[in-house]
Write a structure and sequence with these properties.
mainly alpha; single chain; 68% helix; 162 residues
């Protein structure tokens, strides 16, 4: 008896494969959000990108879930009309093109931001560094202790992929 209840409960929680038209609607909406974000990046208004963040996160989750279900059993989509599946393929292709543009724009913004952070960190390190000292032969000292003194208190920048 308990086993039957567990099976029913498991079946109720298992994600269902969406029909092609419904999945295409979700992908089209996600594409629309990415196009909006691409425009915001072009306008240098990245702060406004948080406006649709929760919806985008939800749609990405649905998209990933559906792609996993389709990849596990691609034969399931053969039961739907060919025109619906073709429409899903068309919407998906458009989505991939927008996604590629979005990725390139975000990569560019990330590179610029990292360059700015590095430049600021280097400038801060220069300003905090003690003045150079000279040794007996009138060359700038580069002993380990003077190098360590220059690096103490300097800025540290990290490159971390989020």
């Amino acid at each position: 008896m308990n086993q039957i209840i567990q099976q029913q409960h498991t079946q109720q929680r298992a994600p269902a494969l969406l029909p092609p038209k419904e999945l295409a609607e979700k992908i089209a909406r996600l594409k629309q959000i990415l196009e909006f974000e691409n425009e915001l990046i072009s306008l240098r208004n990245a702060k406004a990108m948080t406006e649709h963040q929760s919806e985008k996160t939800r749609l990405v989750g649905i998209y990933n879930q559906q792609m996993t279900l389709i990849s596990r059993n691609p034969e399931q989509y053969k039961r739907f009309p060919k025109s619906d599946v073709d429409y899903l393929k068309e919407v998906s292709q458009e989505f991939y093109e927008v996604l590629d543009t979005h990725f390139r724009k975000l990569s560019s913004v990330k590179s610029v931001t990292e360059g700015i952070v590095k430049a600021v960190a280097e400038e801060a390190a220069k300003k905090k560094a003690p003045p150079p000292t000279y040794n007996a032969s009138a060359a700038i000292n580069s002993t380990v202790s003077s190098t360590n003194r220059r690096t103490l208190g300097s800025a540290i920048s990290c490159n971390e992929v989020v």
